Amino acid sequence: MTPEAQARAALARGDLPAAAAAAKALAQGRPESPAGFFLMGMVAAEAGQIAKAVPLVQAAVARGPQAEHLAQLARLLILLRREGEAGEAAHAAMGLAPRDALTLDTIGCVLTRLGDHEASLAPFTAAVAAEPDNLEYRYNLAAASGFTGRVDDARAHYEAILAADPGNARAHYALAILARQTVQANHVPRLERALAGADRPEDALRIRYALAKELEDIGDASGAFRYLSAANAAQKQALGYDFEQDAAMFDALEALFGEGGDALAAGDGYPDPAPIFVVGMPRTGTTLTDRILSSHRDVGSAGELQAMPLAVKQAARTASRTVIDPETIRASGAIDPMVIGKAYMARASHQRPKGAARFVDKLPANFLYTGHIVRALPQARIVCLRRNPMDTVWSNYKNLFSSQSAYYAYSYDLMDTARYYLRFDRLMALWDHLWPGRVLQLSYEELVADQEGQTRRLLDHCGLEWDAACLSFHENSAAVATPSAAQVRRKLNSEGICRWKTHAQGMDEVRAFFEAQGILTD
């Protein structure tokens, strides 16, 4: 067995010391060859030493670029949030016409992380063609197909996964949210069988969410609520979430910005008018608004960027491992707004659509960063979606967000979600008090009732000329990677208004809480 084969075999079985020794010997014996440096980089990456791995893989690429090496470099760069370099490496890897499935799938995953779902289809398709029985590769292709509106292709791939692995919870959930189910055509019996056989808590979580979604689609409100309650109670317990975690964050924001701004560094910010921030609680029409705006001839969608949270975190230089926390918020006040503005634009440049003068960043959680945005990007426009608070709570509670995301840990409990909404509402009132009119408060219900009038108001606030294409947002062919993908490909309708009333009994406590706080629920 050659030294390279020895190193790869040791890596495959998880023997990192043996792999490191073989890779080092290979690099020392053949310093002109890329293989040893690449494998040393892979050993470092497997050990969690990503920053150490990158220069080793770069050394391999410098000795003669190979698709496998470039693809893995792109993957590592994404982990370090170096999106621009990652994109260059991924495209360079694809340009070398790779044939092995892992390299192709890796390229597709990097492009997906960069929000380029359309471009990810080619490597994902080739990966599945090379290894049709690999269910991970097929799942990635299915997801990309769904994001880009190829619903029939996505459905076929998910069904193929389930034919091979009937308990595959990710595929079950993806199929449930891919389209609206009907009494005549749904997967409820199959999902119930899958739930009975689910061994892992994360699988049970996804399948219960899938059941809740399909049961709600077919009119079984009590069944949907029952499955949601079980799923969310288990997930909240698993996370160990306490609302005080989020309350402390809101307290820190209000303290930093709400006491006359004494703790805020002076500065004018970065005067770039390109960004349009669409913010708000999730599931309130942010994706819809993004589609309306990106249907305009001068606007492209960059998707849900992490650029602002990362720009603030990077500049704050706090030691905490979370992107946003009270410590980071307090430290951010001392940062020159110009530094944050430039850092944001540098990060956003890697994912904003080419050729569009303006771009939409529709990360809902940017409502937390409104104060930073106003100061760092004084010419940026900000739109906050508002939806009936009861519908907001229900739609958050019934949506399965990324279980690893710290932004949405509140959503596994109805009352936690109601408390979160209260603090969101209070924070938006603070921003409006500090900068009157700077944030457009756009009502989802009013947009549905008066599409053209509210669309004109939206475009005017964003400094955009009228474009009738914005009324035909459902014809927008751009990819959508959110749970709203199916809805925004249909014409605007009122189906989502007052949906909470279907579960009114289960939401009595939420309604009483809001009424006690003076928040209107009708």
Automatic annotation (TrEMBL):
SMART domains: TPR. PROSITE patterns: TPR. Keywords: TPR repeat, Transferase. Pfam families: Sulfotransfer_3, TPR_19. It comes from the Bacteria. Transmembrane segments: none annotated. TPR repeats lie at residues 101-134. The keyword Transferase applies. InterPro entries: P-loop_NTPase, TPR-like_helical_dom_sf, TPR_rpt, TPST-like. This is Sulfotransferase. It comes from Novosphingobium beihaiensis.
